[in-house]
Amino acid sequence: MQFGRSYEEFEVGATYKHWPGKTVTEYDDHLFCLLTMNHHPLHLDTHYAEETTQFGKNVVVGNYVYSILLGMSVPDISGKAIANLEIESLRHVAPTFHGDTLYGETTVLDKRESTSKDDRGVVHVETIGYNQDGKVVCIFRRKVMVPKQSYLDARGGEQPGRPVPQPDKNWSGPATS
């Protein structure tokens, strides 16, 4: 399974559909809110949300929705990234609720070679997230610095930094046929 892409593998206009989706539970949302100290009752207090909001129920905190979608995109977009350079825009265009399943896809808007180092480039992408009904809930654009193949080759290829298992008293080495 591919994990990320080199600069040469990105094509402007290509769309990558991230898989699998993620069903957002009440627990996920509450834990994220508490970990990030976002105690807004819209996310944590069912009675408050039912009685005082237009939605009539808790809304999943937007930063969690964004984080899920960003994470979903890693195997397709930034799994080999050198750096995330910029989040150009982030829009929450519809609410996400407990029990919704999020799906995402990312389109390559542009790419350019680095002006400072010849072994990398910058990819400009837009990710949309939508729920189980196809309703778009979040849209963001970002720029990611990704390696060229020459960068990867100089650092160990497709899985740089991966150690080689060493034989010892518990394992004698690769099986031979």
UniProtKB/TrEMBL annotation:
One Gene Ontology term of the molecular function aspect: lyase activity
Tell me which domain of life the UniProt entry assigns to the organism this sequence originates from. Bacteria
Which residues does the annotated region (Disordered) include? 151-177
Q: Which PANTHER family match?
A: BETA-METHYLMALYL-COA DEHYDRATASE, MONOAMINE OXIDASE-RELATED
Quote the SUPFAM superfamilies the UniProt record gives. Thioesterase/thiol ester dehydrase-isomerase (SSF54637)
- The protein in question is named MaoC family dehydratase
* Gene3D superfamilies xref list: Hotdog Thioesterase
Q: Which organism is it from?
A: Nocardioides iriomotensis
